[in-house]
Each structure stands twice: as C-alpha cells, then as structure tokens.
Amino acid sequence: MFLIAGLGNPGEKYEKSRHNVGWIVLDRFAKDFSFGAYVKSAKNMGELSESRIGKEKVVILRPHTMMNNSGKAVSTLIKSKKAAQNLVVIHDDLDMPLGKFKIVYNRGSGGHKGVRSVKKALGTNEFLRIKVGISPSTLSGKVKKPKGEKAVLNFIIGEFKEAERKKIKKVAKDISEALRSIILDGRELAQTDWN
C-alpha cells in the first residue's frame, strides 16, 4: 500500500492558502486517478480516500490535525519504518520558487514543522517528500521569500493570487504524473525523470 499525505490546515480560513498547497496538489491527483470522495475518519484524524493505480492500492490522506501535528494523523496509517518507505508527503516549500517542485528521500525537515512532526512520529526520515515551491522569484530564478517570523506566517497563510493559482494548477498536474511514476516505476526512476 502507498500512502500519499498532503499537508495542510483544516478549515475554510486556510483552504486556499499557500500553506495548504499539499491539499491542493492531492486533490488534483485524486481527480486525475478517479479516487472517490474523501471520507472523514476520527481514528485517522483526517479525510481519506483510496483507489488503485496499476496493481497498487493507494490511500490518500488530508490530515485534520493542523500542520504542526501532521505526524499524529500519518502515524495512524504508517506503523513501521518499512511501511514508511511507501509514504509520500506533499508540502509547501518557502525556499523554492512558485511553479517548481522536487522529490526528495531520506532528508531532514528543512525547518518545515509539518515534516518535522511526521519524522518525529514515525522515527525515521526514510520516506518520500514532494516539496512544492510557493515563493515569488526574480527573472533569474532567485527566490524572494519574506523576512521575519510574522511576515513569513502572514505569507504562508495568505491566499495565492490569480496568476499564482495558474502556476499551481500546472505544477499540480505535473506532480500528479510524478506520483503515478513513483507508484508504478519506483522512487529512483521518478526522481531521475522529474527532478
């Protein structure tokens, strides 16, 4: 079984925020591969849906624990370090430009509190992550992220502008295909093809 968790915060207030890009991407993947409607699960602390891609069973999860406690929800479904190798966590990344993504495996949290929570709950770094860039950039591609804790918080919980939403739609489509590749072709080939 593969578990794909899109990190975000529950509630209408956060629905379209930059911090919820994990949910936005997950919803695109669910649509592309005919997942059913999400079902709320108190036991799993979030919303779940499942489908098959090829012969593989795939479960998708939108945690409802708030971002910084995402590990609590993920750990209800991933019970061992071996199972964690079939986990993909999708999350926002301030250090990457909007419209870009990167697949990483067995890496530190990079300061992302949601990822840190997952790592702590599972006791391992050995899971895949798809980092989705949310920051504006210069023409040369240099990231222009906000400075200072308050500015960062306001930025990540702020909504994407219309032009930014178009970029997110495009990158979500690419990530959806990259997820299919991870499931059917394996992590290493997917990283080679999409990074």
Automatic annotation (TrEMBL):
<dbReference type="GO" id="GO:0000049">
    <property type="term" value="F:tRNA binding"/>
</dbReference>
<comment type="function">
    <text>Hydrolyzes ribosome-free peptidyl-tRNAs (with 1 or more amino acids incorporated), which drop off the ribosome during protein synthesis, or as a result of ribosome stalling.</text>
</comment>
<keyword id="KW-0820">tRNA-binding</keyword>
<feature type="binding site">
    <location>
        <position position="14"/>
    </location>
    <ligand>
        <name>tRNA</name>
    </ligand>
</feature>
<comment type="subunit">
    <text>Monomer.</text>
</comment>
<feature type="active site" description="Proton acceptor">
    <location>
        <position position="19"/>
    </location>
</feature>
<comment type="similarity">
    <text>Belongs to the PTH family.</text>
</comment>
<dbReference type="InterPro" id="IPR001328">
    <property type="entry name" value="Pept_tRNA_hydro"/>
</dbReference>
<feature type="site" description="Stabilizes the basic form of H active site to accept a proton">
    <location>
        <position position="92"/>
    </location>
</feature>
<dbReference type="GO" id="GO:0006515">
    <property type="term" value="P:protein quality control for misfolded or incompletely synthesized proteins"/>
</dbReference>
<feature type="binding site">
    <location>
        <position position="68"/>
    </location>
    <ligand>
        <name>tRNA</name>
    </ligand>
</feature>
<protein>
    <recommendedName>
        <fullName>Peptidyl-tRNA hydrolase</fullName>
        <ecNumber>3.1.1.29</ecNumber>
    </recommendedName>
</protein>
<comment type="function">
    <text>Catalyzes the release of premature peptidyl moieties from peptidyl-tRNA molecules trapped in stalled 50S ribosomal subunits, and thus maintains levels of free tRNAs and 50S ribosomes.</text>
</comment>
<dbReference type="GO" id="GO:0005737">
    <property type="term" value="C:cytoplasm"/>
</dbReference>
<keyword id="KW-0378">Hydrolase</keyword>
<dbReference type="Pfam" id="PF01195">
    <property type="entry name" value="Pept_tRNA_hydro"/>
</dbReference>
<feature type="binding site">
    <location>
        <position position="66"/>
    </location>
    <ligand>
        <name>tRNA</name>
    </ligand>
</feature>
<dbReference type="GO" id="GO:0004045">
    <property type="term" value="F:peptidyl-tRNA hydrolase activity"/>
</dbReference>
<feature type="site" description="Discriminates between blocked and unblocked aminoacyl-tRNA">
    <location>
        <position position="9"/>
    </location>
</feature>
<dbReference type="GO" id="GO:0072344">
    <property type="term" value="P:rescue of stalled ribosome"/>
</dbReference>
<keyword id="KW-0963">Cytoplasm</keyword>
<keyword id="KW-0694">RNA-binding</keyword>
<dbReference type="InterPro" id="IPR036416">
    <property type="entry name" value="Pept_tRNA_hydro_sf"/>
</dbReference>
